[in-house]
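Lab manual, section 2.4: Encoding a predicted structure.

Procedure: take the sequence of the chain (83 residues), apply the prediction step described in section 2.3, and record the output as structure tokens. A sample record is shown.
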Amino acid sequence: MRVRVKKQNSEGIQRLESEGDIKDILINQDFMEPSKVSVSLCFRGNNSAGIVDLTPEEIGMINKEIVSKKKLLKKVKVMKFEK
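Recorded output:
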């Protein structure tokens, strides 16, 4: 997995780039508010580590884009999440 981020600081916009492997995928749900669901992708590289949090809407948008371009990719594993 490659992560590219633009960050605003006092000197201007700084671009950061890192690579790593996805170590864990967590699905978080609030028991008090079941509509609050998030998916966390935990990754770790040689010099970096982090967590990317996604909402179900963002995952649906990514899935829609992948399915529409599925012919271009050789091997795709589509994961479906139920609400």
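Check your result against the sample. The helical segments are 56-68.
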